[in-house]
Sequence to fold (459 residues):
Amino acid sequence: MGALAAMSYKRLLGSSDNQTQIKEREMSSSGKGKHILVIPFPASGHILPHVDLTHQLALRGLTITILVTPKNLPFVNPLLSLHPNTVQSLILPFPFHPSIPPGIENMQDVTVNFLPHIATALGQLYEPIIQWFRSHPSPPVAIFSDHLLNLWTHRLGSTLGIKSIGFMPMNANLVFNCFANVDEQDNVFFREMTLKMMESWGLVINSFTELEGDRLDLVKGFMKHDRVWGVGPLIPIKGGSERGGPTSIPTDEVMAWLDSCQVDRSVVYVGFGSQIRLNKKQMEALSDALEKSEVRFIWAVKEPVKGVKNEEDDQGIVPNGFEDRVAGRGLVIRGWVPQAMILNHRAIGSYLTHCGWGSVLEGLIGGVLLLTWPMQVDHYFNTNMLVDELGVAVRICEGLDAIPNSKNLAHILAESVNENRPDRIAFMKLRDKALDAIKEDGSSYKALDDLVNQISNLN
Fold:
């Protein structure tokens, strides 16, 4: 990691290995101890940035209760350890829903079509939260919920007479497109969710003014107020395996392997987030390309979801013999991957990604060239912005069922670690702007300060 990036990480983390510094920062900050209730959505791409945002709010002096169900507690444990005096958990059982398999509490265990079911199921926590609120000696002044939960958290705020603030872990471009096209949305769940987001007292977006200032202004126009804060890129409070769960290769072994790479920016990282699982033909094409490219690589593989029938029973299976043939040159990691740590290692040069926004920001902070393969939801918006508008990334192919040409992909992978590529140079300039935004007195840093100041004035 470069000196500037390291400095930014250390400053934003509040020296996370030093509890005294965190306590001093909290005591001298502007939050004045106002209490908020944080309700994240249980998907890795949502709950982790929400935890990182909550860390920033705690550093600024807010008192926070974060609501989770039992199986999602590990996601917030690092936050609770860092802020034992100001952040506490409210653990409520995951409600029954007829369409959700027993024991499922997180999106990483199911496919994307379960999203509305999980959001709806969590809505059954409405009454238990009201009971908790009314019995609390110092109840929250605001509810800070993921935008996917707006359908019931907005109503909850109205019932309790407190403000509702939405958190969007994606970018302002997606928010603007959702607002601009809400009347054309034929999915009732997403249409109503968007309308409630537009009615929120405030909205926090994981992006920054230098990248999306014009779109942030357009979002404010739709919401008819200025309480829209671009606070990104949010820096992980913990980068290791403790952020996600079990893994086939321990974090220290992964980092030791990267340390052994003698050439900087020479390794390709391949990962498609917590939801995407490649089918057999895609796995074969990608493995063939990695083998032919002759580059060093790390490949994060999502294995089939247990207990949930896939459209193809062979999803996420690495072809026989592949790992033996690339032994020493590549790592295949199954399960959780310490992605932020990997992308910030000096050895990583490029990142083949689905282009989910959290992954984009992690790649940006790491300063690695993005090779995009958009597949669903916001991936296409992100790719269009990065490739077509900004010219800072490379489109490989697109589509959930697309199968890349392995020969062409091998060539792109080999070329992607060239440090003199124009798109890499342009991406590094954007990275500098992102790091400036999160430094003290940067646009995102000041936006967080303003957010906390406004919350501190609520009754």
Observations:
- Residues 1-24 have pLDDT under 50 and may be disordered.
